[in-house]
């Protein structure tokens, strides 16, 4: 969808902002450009909508060399979200959102209808917020309007320049989650500039790590964190890149252990005998439909005696995550609840548990898979969990 072919930008004073960039962004892909200030990432992005003209090389959007396209028409086909949002203070939120459709010739009723749809999509009820002005919104709400406005004319390409940098960390994380959910539905081709490696890792399908005017590594977040291409990349992503890797490695069914299971209505005596024969100290407790109820210890079953059912001594299980969640979320649940394991669910259905040893194994397997260019299920090694 977007292709750079040996693109350079040199200013009259001899400053070389970008030097011989060649890379491609696939249709529907979100690529983050990350690096320190002055490395050329914003220049790269602004050349796509010709706010900055390249000195040499070609940039193609959907196979078309943009140097031959009228810049104004080009910009109306490309969504643009900036950190300061840039809403018109004298126009309502609905009219702000309808700006680009109106500029490209949509009738007013159609443009406002589209604007209302987009406001609703980004979580702002048009009946509540449509008639308000930017000054009446919080920073996070204005940022949502900026995203809605960029999407209003249904552009195939979206450029985002530090879009969440002007809000506090809690709001930023929520906006990131909301945008990723939105991107899963609309599947735009996105170039996003950020100076924050954690944001780049969290948001990008692939990451371009910039040095000075050049891309030092262009790869998946997992590969950048697990196998830095250069010492510069390793230094930039940080010594804690193993911890960052937890946020991009998801929990898969093969990562789970299968502990003993007891049923809510099962006699205590039966469950206690099964744990004793297995040498287990606890069991997961499920209801009749296989949904997680909690857990019960062997000691609790022994104290309960010969009578009653497992549901009586069973305890609530607060440490759980959905399958497909990042390992970081599971690790956080372990720490928050002081738990030696977390239950993993598919909806409400119990799949297994993730232990610290299995979490470590999943992380190692993910790193090795990227290094070898194979799937995680093709990586084998001696595991602490199997010792």
In short:
The chain has 387 residues and is α/β, with parallel strands linked by helices.
Write down the Rg.
26 Å
Strands in their spatial order, largest beta sheet? 6-7-8-3-9-10
User: Unreliable segments (pLDDT under 50, ≥5 consecutive)?
Assistant: none
Q: What is the fourth-level CATH superfamily of the largest domain?
A: P-loop containing nucleotide triphosphate hydrolases
What does it look like?
This protein is of the alpha/beta class. The chain has 2 domains: 2-248, P-loop containing nucleotide triphosphate hydrolases (Rossmann fold, 3-Layer(aba) Sandwich), CATH 3.40.50.300; 253-363, CBS-domain, CATH 3.10.580.10. The chain is 37% helix and 23% strand. The protein contains 16 helices and 17 strands. The strands form 4 sheets. It has a 6-stranded mixed sheet with strand order 6-7-8-3-9-10, with helices on both faces. Strands 2-1-4-5 form a 4-stranded antiparallel sheet, with helices on one face. A 4-stranded mixed sheet has the order 11-12-13-14. A hairpin with a 5-residue loop joins β1 (2-10) and β2 (16-25). The relative contact order is 0.10.
Secondary-structure blueprint:
Layout: E1 2-10, E2 16-25, E3 30-34, H1 41-48, E4 56-61, E5 64-65, H2 71-76, E6 78-82, H3 93-97, H4 99-103, H5 108-121, H6 126-129, H7 139-151, E7 157-161, H8 169-186, E8 189-194, H9 197-203, E9 206-210, E10 215-219, H10 221-226, H11 231-237, H12 241-245, E11 261-263, H13 268-278, E12 282-286, E13 292-297, H14 298-304, E14 315-316, E15 320-322, H15 327-336, E16 342-346, E17 349-354, H16 356-372
Parallel strand pairs: 3-8, 3-9, 6-7, 7-8, 11-12, 15-16
Antiparallel strand pairs: 1-2, 1-4, 4-5, 9-10, 12-13, 13-14, 16-17
